[in-house]
Write a structure and sequence with these properties.
The complex is a heterodimer of chains A (254) and B (149).
Chain A: H1 3-19, H2 24-36, E1 42-48, E2 51-57, E3 65-70, H3 78-92, H4 98-108, H5 115-132, H6 137-160, H7 164-186, H8 192-200, H9 206-217, H10 221-248
Helix pairs in contact in A: 1-2, 1-4, 2-3, 3-4, 5-6, 5-8, 6-7, 6-8, 7-8, 7-10, 9-10
Chain B: H1 2-18, H2 26-47, H3 49-71, H4 76-82, H5 89-101, H6 104-148
Helix pairs in contact in B: 1-2, 1-4, 2-3, 2-4, 3-4, 3-6, 5-6
Classes of the chains: A mainly alpha (254), B mainly alpha (149).
Chain lengths: 254, 149
């Protein structure tokens, strides 16, 4: 039994899942399943929002091993979560051996869609939300344009790296100003509220809300609380940004 | 109404790309989102936004759980994009908008509805998660009983 590689697999799998914004209980579950394939006396995995710890001990090995890993960047990546899940299932059911699982895990850390596609998707998301909320063609076009503006701002911010709070404030302010300008100069009949609402949707902390709920209901209050706070802070930053934008274009009085 | 459902379909499809979902699950996730929004619109007039969110959340959660069992992938893949249309972005915006205009009581009303909608999403996820947990437990029990006898 190559328990050291097994440990590496557990830490790698847990790390990828946490970085991909999986629910914390799912991360712990996966790591525990992987570690338990060793049939050791002590197998323990702990994941919190910012890092993970795993430990293995058995009378058959000299010293217990423990690995701590800090997670710094979190970006939602559903495809990584799905792939790690498949590999861990195959490993625990004995379909693949430890070295194969390790190699497979090392190969998955990749992005599926180019940044350009994601920028287009942001724009389409805003346009579709205008349609979803009952807007007409005019609102769709305006929201699509505004969504492209949002993608541009997010792209520019990535280079500066100011942190998520400032990013949300700045981008939602830009969106509101953009919608206001379109309303003032291009289409006076435009439903500005609908356009702004549609364009802030890509920023709304949906992922954080859903994960906060699911972690909390699994009894994982540390991560649930952290995610809930994240959702609240993001919502607050969007509200501040929209307020700034509305004040700049005339207090929403137009 | 059909155009709104189409809007939900494309919105969720776009959301799956932003969330880096695997390509083959884009379509099922979009179906989950679109049917959720259809249910929401169906109940919106009769019950108002808060109960409609709950009912729609029930439908989205159930579909997500069923799809996750069919495709054998984590339920998050359908959950996260599927709930996108329901998130109370518009309530949040309207609260800020009315506040800036100086209509504090209107702003408070929108804020309360926003919080209620978020709570309803939570309640819907909780309800269906519990149902599926109980189902799984009872299946496991049956299996272990069969093995004993």
């Amino acid at each position: 039994m190559d328990y050291k590689t097994l440990m590496d697999i557990a830490i790698l799998a847990g790390g990828i899942m946490l970085e991909s914004n999986a629910e914390t209980y799912r991360v712990e579950d996966t790591m525990n399943h992987i570690l338990q394939t060793s049939n050791f006396e002590t197998t323990e995995a702990l994941a919190i929002a910012t890092g993970l710890v795993a430990t293995l001990d058995d009378p058959s090995i000299d010293d217990p091993i423990t690995i701590v890993k800090r997670i710094n960047s979190i970006a939602t990546n559903l495809s990584n979560i799905a792939e790690v899940n498949t590999i861990s299932r195959q490993l625990t059911s004995g379909e693949i051996a430890i070295p194969e699982a390790y190699a497979a895990l090392q190969n998955i850390k990749r992005v599926q869609y180019k940044q350009g596609y994601k920028d287009i998707a942001t724009s389409i998301l805003a346009a579709s939300f205008a349609l979803l909320l009952g807007g007409g063609t005019l609102e769709m076009v305006a929201a699509g344009f505004n969504g492209a503006l949002l993608a541009l701002v997010l792209k520019g911010e990535k280079r500066l790296g100011m942190g998520s709070f400032v990013r949300n404030v700045v981008s939602s302010a830009v969106i509101s100003i953009g919608a206001g300008l379109i309303h003032l100069f291009l289409f006076p009949t435009l439903n500005m509220n609908l356009v702004i609402t549609s364009t802030i949707m890509p920023l709304v902390p949906g992922t954080a809300i859903t994960n906060a709920i699911r972690d909390t209901l699994q009894g994982d209050y540390t991560s649930g609380g952290a995610k809930a706070l994240e959702a609240f802070v993001v919502a607050l930053s969007i509200a501040i940004g929209v307020a700034i934008g509305l004040v700049i274009i005339g207090g929403g009085l137009v | 109404m059909i155009s709104q459902i189409l809007g939900a379909f494309f919105a969720v499809a776009a959301a799956t790309i932003i969330l880096e979902s695997p390509k083959k699950y884009i379509f099922p996730a979009a179906v989950v989102g679109a049917s959720g929004w259809f249910v929401y619109l169906l109940f919106l007039k009769a019950f108002g936004p808060v109960p409609a969110t709950y009912i729609s959340g029930l439908v989205i959660s159930t579909e997500s759980h069923i799809f996750s069992r069919i495709f054998k992938v984590p339920v998050t893949i359908f959950f996260l994009p599927g709930f996108f249309p329901l998130f109370p972005g518009s309530g949040m915006y309207l609260a800020v908008y009315e506040f800036i205009k100086g209509h504090t009581s209107l702003a408070q009303g929108h804020l309360i509805i926003t919080i209620q909608i978020a709570g309803m999403i939570a309640l819907a996820i909780f309800t269906i998660d519990t149902v599926f947990k109980v189902l799984k437990k009872s299946q496991d029990l049956k299996k272990s009983r069969a093995q004993v006898s």
